[in-house]
Amino acid sequence: MIPPGTEAALADSWEYFLHLAVVLTPLFLGASFLVGLAQEYLPPERVETLLRSRDHGSGNVLAAGLGAVTPFCSCSTVPVLAGLLSAGAPLGTAFSFLLASPIVNWIAVVLLFGLFGPAVTIAYVAAALACAVGGGLVVGSLDLDRYVKDVRITAGDRETVTDGGTAAAGGCCDPDPTPSGGCCERDAAATTRTHVERVSAAGRGALSFFRDTLPYLLVGITIGALIHGAVPVEALQRVAGPGNPLATPLAALAGAPIYVSLSGMLPIAHSLAETGIPIGTVIAFVIGGAGVSIPNLILLNELFERRLLVIYATTVVTIGVVVGVSFDTVLAGVL
Hints:
InterPro entries: DUF318, UPF0718_permease. By secondary structure, this protein is mainly alpha-helical. The protein has helices spanning about 5-40, 45-50, 60-70, 75-85, 90-105, 105-115, 120-140, 185-190, 195-230, 235-240, 245-255, 260-275, 280-290, 295-300, 305-330; strands at about 150-155, 160.
């Protein structure tokens, strides 16, 4: 026998699922196109060139900005990070890139705008970038280079070597590049492509990216719909409502084990906000999940010693808590 209210709850979940799917699908396609354009005009080698041997301060600001606009997922962020270190970028500068990359990107900005509006989106981006810059500055002042492993990372047809965070031979576009067949030659060939060819490639890449990420988006929409229709609001309020002073740090920690992708996290976050969970707690959940996801930590373990890995995870959770508390206090009357 079906428990009373189950049919109504499932009907509510289905209605909310359709609502999210209709809202998010065009937004996600548009964001995927922007991702493709960014990949065309800002490939990893270009990012490494821009950040090579940058000083602290201005380098951290540039690194955080590039981390936000370059659409690298965990599997490509780590090779890019290794490339930055091997090219001579200070660890603190590379850390600002690493912190900004998963939590501020085209997908996050476009979906946040569609789900929460411009005020929340602008505040989120500004706060997250400021924390990424600050986190990188702090890490850069702690002399942690010795906790970067000596590794050789191969990604596609690029090979990057790190030597305890210092520059190493064999990086992309060295001062004396390979005369033929090297990445510098490929970059030179890439610059000859017309804008129309780049836009066309970005369109094809958007469709491919959308197909690859659609399962994660559907998982997130499904979970969000079930939370909206089937989970009692009272239960969520007891755990993550304003009455629990530990709700924000717990949310920052809880995001990691259930992370599927940022595109899947945001529908869940929207559903939580719809049930009355404070927006700061929801934002902390998103930041913690995006930055301290299990896949991200596994990949970073190849590059960082355990102590530096813990420092990274602690920094991300701290950013989630700081941004979340700021949303619920300082920005509560504005947003």
